[in-house]
Amino acid sequence: MELTNIVESNENVKKIYFLCDDGAEVESCLLFLEKHGTVICISSQVGCTQKCKFCAAGLTKFVRNLTALEVQKQVELIIEKFPERFIDGFEITYMGSGEPFNNGETLKQTIEYFFFHYNNLNKINISTLLPRLEEDYYRELKKYKEKLHLQFSLHFCTDDKRHQYFDFNLPSISDSLKYLDILSDQLNDKYTINYVLFDQINDSSEDAIRLANWVNGREAYVKISEMSPISKSKLKKSEKLEEFIHVLQELHVQYECFKSLGKDVNAGCGQFYNESLI
Fold it and tell me: Which helix (H) or strand (E) holds 60?
């Protein structure tokens, strides 16, 4: 694998392009978040199997899983290119192209590699639609207690609507949260429930109430985000962010608002894609 191109946004986000030995292309990004410091956002697949209708990678065809070496190389080559960004601690996030748990063996191997190879790695974040795992997998992840953080892509508060905009083979919301409750307890870490607002689809007061019902009473909090522009998606950014948040506040939901950076160079959340796969 080789690093082939770097595009920098006006928000100091670098979108980084890689070419695999077989000609497959993948993307990562390097950014700085006030709360987390330096973060590398990496891909785990070429294309994606999940076909989310608000994600650029989901609108492409799935080609293959990345190997452990290809996932590791994304981080290694970025650190080699920008060593000054890694003098202090940093985080790695599996939130580029692909569902990490659909490439589960590579995920386990690379998590272990990163934690034992980089002494200043603070945390690994995994963004997933599929938290339903075998018990043996849970036990292997438990060794990274307090260093591994899960982010669950909920976005819609009923199973019917999730199936409409995601994949029909997803586990139910109830089952997903049950597994996350178990795993987060083992990791001794609150998990994040990601919720992107879409115009007139999941942004009503009723949706906020449903979200509160799912979250309250759990060791979890909500990350509210605005949709990143996706040229091939029919979904639109919601204009009801403040009203939605007001309902969450009234219902005492723990939440944070997240601003996705790098949208001007298609490096924002949901904007990773390979044009050749469209």
Answer: none
